[in-house]
Write a structure and sequence with these properties.
The protein has 301 residues and is of the alpha/beta class. It is built from five helices and 13 strands. A hairpin with a 5-residue loop joins strand 5 and strand 6. The protein starts with a strand and ends with a helix.
Length: 301
Amino acid sequence: MIDQAPIEVVGGDGGNGAVSFHREKFIPQGGPDGGRGGRGGHVILIANAQINTLRRYRRAATFRADAGQPGGKNKRRGRDGADLLLEVPVGTIACATDRDGEPTEQLADLTADGQGVLVARGGRGGHGNVFFRSATNRAPRVAQRGQPGRQRRVRLELRLIADAGLVGLPNAGKSTLLGRLSAARPRVAAYPFTTLEPHLGVVAVGWDEFVLADLPGLIEGAAAGAGLGHDFLRHASRTRLLVHVLDAAGPDPIAAWQTINAELTAYDAALAARPQIVALNKLDIGAAREVLPALLGRLRE
């Protein structure tokens, strides 16, 4: 899953103004009539619910809108350049960055289908020579060049939007649980780090439904970037509820629960304060059933 992409966006240049003089039968020396150039096209990001990855921006680094057309005679204004619409998944955050790729300003957080933001404005068209006519200069032979479009470096970052997120250590059984509750089919295997990217599933409850996210497993030090660290925590920040999946047959489920909560707190205290449901998994294993009463008692504490 491609959930980050640095791109460069460039608004279209404005069209040049025209130098022109009115010529008509019996009016051999008409006044200036050069029109203004058209505006350059804008670059606009727009959220599309049918897209779920930033893959299309993985290699194409620069996106440039069309330039405005030059002005014409008879005071005709040049045609505006076409705007460039860049479709991104719902949940995309766009940040302006410096030359080193460090964010300097958040431009938008696109959380709704169809929501858009202008990220690079097209340049204004230049004035034609009719604009420069004055009492002392009746026949100006100058026109204005169009302004260049704005150029920006932008980092796109996708944060999935889900009602609930499955969190836990690697191999706790999060993907199996998502597969049982929804039609999603994440990869499942008997070894850690099987899930390397988030998966979404829709869970039906009677006539209602909610979106459940299977997020890559955390390890100690994730808040500092260890393992899949920030890749996981970025997506967890969008969820309204955390479902903490514990391997009840593991060596110390309570320590695992404490580790994950410590990483959530280190990354964002507000994230750690979200409502949590603890789901004890692998209770079909004999060792898990034996420690279940003691485990429930410790969790209630």
